[in-house]
């Protein structure tokens, strides 16, 4: 799995960090980031739900190699 956040789309709503706090956080400006070492989702079953929770669709979750 590969996770990416489009910084040009993210509005800092924080829904991803609330849904999957083991994978997502917010930076000092309030924008979402994937935690270091968690770019593959870290096996967290809530990653896809966190992506769906993003109100602007800034998070992309894809299978590796896709």
From TrEMBL:
SUPFAM superfamilies: 4Fe-4S ferredoxins. InterPro entries: 3Fe4S_ferredoxin, 4Fe4S_Fe-S-bd, Fe-S_cluster_ET. Residues 1-29 form the 4Fe-4S ferredoxin-type domain. Keywords: 3Fe-4S, Electron transport, Iron, Iron-sulfur, Metal-binding, Transport. It comes from the Bacteria. Ferredoxins are iron-sulfur proteins that transfer electrons in a wide variety of metabolic reactions. This is Ferredoxin. The lineage of its organism: Bacteria, Bacillati, Actinomycetota, Actinomycetes, Kitasatosporales.
């Amino acid at each position: 799995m590969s996770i990416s956040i489009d910084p040009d789309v993210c509005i800092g709503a924080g829904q991803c960090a609330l849904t999957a706090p083991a994978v997502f956080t917010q930076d000092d400006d309030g924008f979402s980031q994937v935690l270091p070492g968690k770019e593959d989702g870290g096996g967290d079953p809530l990653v896809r739900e966190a992506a769906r929770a993003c109100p602007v669709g800034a998070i992309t979750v894809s299978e590796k190699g896709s």
